[in-house]
Amino acid sequence: MVHAWVIGSGSNEGNRGTFASSNPGSNRYKKVEGERGGRRSGVAKREAGWKLARLSFLFAAFVILFAGFSFMRSFADESAAKPVSAEERVVLVDSGDTLWSIAESVKQEGMDTRAVIHQIKKRNDLTSSSLRSGDRLIIPATVLKT
User: What tens digit of pLDDT does each residue of 113-133 get?
Assistant: First the structure.
């Protein structure tokens, strides 16, 4: 079954076109009423509804993204470490260095090495014990040899 729109020249009073069905053995033609008196047809109303829905979705997405970026910016932590004080010391990590070996070399006599490692990690905002060559570690003044 094939359906086709036959568009008129507009000379018919109030008719915009006719709908022709080319089903074999069928000679039916259905009249389709167009816009009259400024009223919208069903298709135009549906299109306007979809336009409104798309605009509403885009507006909501924009508001959500804007709010998310605003919250992200306002609750972001400072990633920069606190500046080194005069009592603290900066150690440059070399290949093969571990937190344990650094803590052993800088700690005061009688201090627990694990406590020193904990203080070094806390001062440098480290979440793991892995170090890379070239890293700079700030050694707190409370653990340094006198």
Answer: 999 999 999 999 899 889 999
CATH 3.10.350.10 fits 89-139, yes or no: yes
pTM assigned to the model: 0.47
CA distance 122 to 74: 24
How distant, in Å, are the alpha carbons of 83, 92, 129 from that of 97? 23, 10, 11
Going from N- to C-terminal start, the domains of the chain cover 3-33, 40-76, 89-139
Structure-token pair, residue 11:
């000379």
The answer to whether residues 36 and 14 touch, using CB atoms and an 8 Å cutoff, is: yes
pLDDT tens per residue across span 15-55: 455 555 555 555 555 555 544 555 667 778 888 889 999 99
- What value does the mean pLDDT of the chain take? 78
Distances from the Cα of 18 to the Cαs of 9, 21, 34, 84, in angstroms? 11, 10, 10, 85
User: Taking CA 107 as the corner, what is the angle to CA 106 and CA 111, rounded to the nearest 5 degrees?
Assistant: 170
